[in-house]
Structure formats: C-alpha cells, structure tokens
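Example 3.2
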Amino acid sequence: MVKKQYTDRFGSKYRYSAKYPIGTPHGTNLYNKFVNSESWEQLDAQSRVIEKNDNRMDVFLGNNYRFRNIHTGHLVDIKSSHSNTGKTISWTFESEADEFVF
C-alpha cells in the first residue's frame, strides 16, 4: 500500500483573491496527472462544504476523489483538505498498489 502526503501553499495580495503557488505545488500537479491521464478514470468525486444558513459564506473544506486504473484495476483514493482562506491545500494519495503508473 502506498500513501503519499503533500501540502501546497498559495499566496496572494488579498485574503480571498486569486492565488499563485509558493514553491512547487506537488499535490496539485499529481492530481492533475490523474485527471489528464488516459490510463485513469474518475469513479467518484465528493465535495465537503459546511453550509451556513444565514448571510455568511459557505466554508469549502476540500474534496474526495477515487480513480481507477483502466489497465490494472487498481484504485487510488485522493483527499484534499483546504484551509478557510483556500491558501493551504493538504493532499493525501492512498493506493493498494505499490506505485502510481501513468
């Protein structure tokens, strides 16, 4: 079983504005490889959101994804957790296989 964890940090001039990466966003890059790969298909995607029932903004906590390799059938669970400002994203990649092959 393989488990990889990455923390990507983003910055901006303002608190909730557009973000630019601080350093190399390894987790985001690896997730994009799964999305753009022809060998992996996305089985499931779930968003974790705390909905507010008043005029406050909803809090987005992250996503859970599940991908399956078309050739081998191996599954990969991807979990992303976002900070309240969205400037820090923690990625966790878990697989039953020994390695992620694109």
